[in-house]
Amino acid sequence: MVVPPGHARAQPQRHNGDMTNAPTATVCKNILRTSLLDSRLPDRLETEMLYEHYPQYQDFLVAVDIADRPFRHAAVLIPIVDRPAGLSVLLTKRTDTLRSHAGQISFPGGAIDPEDVDAEAAALRETAEEVGIQGEEIEVIGYLPTFETFTGYSITPVVALVQADFTMEIEPAEVAEVFEVPLEYFMQRENREQGQREWGGRDVNYSLFRYDGHVIWGATSGLLTQLANKLGADHEEEML
I need a labelling partner for 121 at 20 to 30 A (CA). Which of 79, 139, 197, 222 fits? Predict the structure, then answer.
């Protein structure tokens, strides 16, 4: 992990935050494992989720002239922390000094490098570099469909359970803050909002969440919605 001049490396710390109003961990873990364990690493671009949340996506790609460009491949880890009070999702806030997506809420992750065996390896490497959580503290349980962004990235979401007593070492050049949100929060539809912004001369609608002063939008919000929808649908099937 390279620390630029002027940045001090954060000291490791044990993360033991208490989460409330979370779903039963055992039930959620069972749903996660049964719905995602058999999923395979995506080997092609899938845009169904993007079209669902952004109906004007195809026209937009043409407008901003990226429809025919190759997507840059990236991977993120969706870390679900296995706490006694329930499951929570770990998120990071990017520093304001980064060249891209500065100050935004995101998952640990980044570009898939040539030395990475696959997207899972990239997600685990980036997680270790950004927040210090090591592979032995992480149980990968599956993948969500590849998510294509307006900025030209094709993101492979790797879903994983993380031990509650994980060791955290934040990379201060990239990460300003790490926080957790109860998984149940994203499964409650009343917590989902719609926003709009101009991009490429067009008004683009997007989904977002607000939590404890944070605005979660963009690809992060889309992936959280996708995960929540997947868990909700499987839970309904389980109850039938």
Answer: 222
